[in-house]
Amino acid sequence: MKMKYFVLTLVMLMFACSAYGQNTKTTTIKVYFSNEKLNPNIDDCNKVYPVTRKIPKTTAIAKAALEEMFKGVTKEEEAKGYGSIPAAESNGILKSINVKNGAAYVNFTKLILEQMGNATTSCGGGQYFGMIEKTLTQFPTIKKVYYAVEGDTNEFYEWVQVGECPYKKHCAKSNFK
């Protein structure tokens, strides 16, 4: 009988130790990807679809959501037709994200210019930035998304062949801290 209690206590201790230090507080978010089964022939390049993910709770939810999106699709999601730019190409491109006054200011590192060539094609850019914008605008504090490379909006908008930041008041370098 004593051996039975000893083994039971040991098993309980093992479970307690394995759970210790793990963050059990999570939140559910959506990340958006293209889907060849839901959008065959890519009739609409900007069309993206949500998948649900659980991530550790954080006060920097917009950044965490983007980082989750940058990880790309899982094998299960890929089997359902979801697709994204490979995670290796997104690695290291996010410098910061600043949310204020209903806008998200996404500041990329210069790596985006080297690693994300497809993002400058009209359809590739529509898909990629559509994924970013839908992922971010799911949050009630974000209505619009603006971009910069190392704080320079002109460099970003010239790279994606738009010309310049569409709204001057949102182009200040101070927005992209």
Question: How far apart are the termini?
Answer: 64 Å
In round numbers, the mean pLDDT is: 84
Q: Main beta sheet: strand number and arrangement?
A: 3 strands, antiparallel
Taking strands numbered 1, 2, ... along the chain, how are they ordered across the largest sheet?
A: 2-1-3
Total helix count?
7
Round the Cα radius of gyration to an integer and report it: 21 Å
Shape category: globular
Global structural class: alpha+beta
Query: pLDDT below 50 for ≥5 consecutive residues: which ranges?
Result: 16-21
Number of domains: 1
Search tags:
7 helices, 6 strands, 3-stranded antiparallel β-sheet, alpha+beta, 37% helix, 177 residues, 3-stranded mixed β-sheet
Written overview of the protein:
With 177 residues, the chain is of the alpha+beta class. It has one domain. Helices cover 37% and strands 22% of the residues. The chain contains seven helices and six strands, in the order αββααβαββααβα. The protein has helices at residues 2-19, 61-70, 75-79, 87-90, 111-115, 122-137, 153-159, and strands at residues 26-35, 49-56, 82-83, 94-100, 103-108, 144-149. The strands form two sheets. Strands 2-1-3 form a three-stranded antiparallel beta sheet. The chain starts with a helix and ends in an 18-residue tail after the last helix.
